[in-house]
Design brief:
The chain has helices spanning 2-27, 33-49, 54-70, 74-94, 99-118, 124-138, 145-164, 170-186, 191-207. Helices cover 82% and strands 0% of the residues. The termini are far apart. The chain is mainly alpha-helical. The chain has 9 helices and no strands.
């Protein structure tokens, strides 16, 4: 009904407002966790009112991802990440061509892998899931600098893990350098891609 739709949009607006506030607090060096939790609650109300709203599922997935990154408890962070993946999977079930959902889920899996890597655990399944999402998306959309940069970041981190395990990272770092190069060909002014390629080349120098 119209009332439910209006209610859902109001809750969604409140949730996104709380999430923006949390991001501002984090950028200023504060503790954003309470605002992220409030954002999740508001967006959950929007989903209850209108469960077909793709934007709400994506938004809650992002809020849960951001909260997971702000937590000290690994178990709670992992649980939030799993819930965020479920949110993004639901968004894709509703809209299989949503570029935002594919990119957000791939980024989430990349960050999960980095977090596992930092704890000394195996991140390869997370990195593989991120690559699979981007490959699927690339079949449905044109290549962008952002997508190429994200692929480069995945292979850079995967190569770092493989090298730390005593295996050759050559194939992964070669792929990382190539993807960062493609990102820079599309957008030469993106500093993140320059940094990513620089890190890859620096790692190569240290490995050799």
């Amino acid at each position: 009904s119209l009332r439910r739709e209006v209610s859902a949009q109001a809750f969604l607006w409140l949730g996104f407002t709380r999430m923006e506030r949390a991001q501002g607090i984090a950028a200023a060096g504060g503790d954003p966790r309470a605002e992220y939790r409030a954002a999740i609650e508001e967006i959950s109300r929007a989903i209850e009112a209108e469960p077909e709203t793709v934007e709400a599922w994506i938004g809650r997935g992002k809020a849960r991802t951001n909260l997971a990154g702000a937590l000290d408890d690994p178990a709670e962070a992992d649980g939030l990440s799993e819930a965020a993946i479920a949110d993004l999977s639901q968004a894709l079930a509703l809209d299989p061509v949503s570029e935002e959902a594919w990119v957000t889920r791939a980024t989430l899996n990349l960050n999960r892998g980095i977090r596992l890597q930092g704890r000394g655990e195996d991140p390869t399944a997370c990195f593989a899931a991120a690559i699979d999402d981007l490959r699927t998306l690339e079949q449905r959309t044109s290549e962008t600098a952002n997508l190429c940069d994200l692929r480069g970041s995945i292979y850079l981190n995967l190569g770092t893990y493989v090298g730390a395990c005593g295996r050759s990272p050559e194939m992964r770092w070669t792929a990382a350098e190539a993807w960062f190069g493609r990102a820079l060909a599309l957008d030469p002014r993106e500093p993140g891609s320059w940094r990513g390629r620089g890190r890859t080349r620096r790692n190569w120098g240290e490995q050799r």
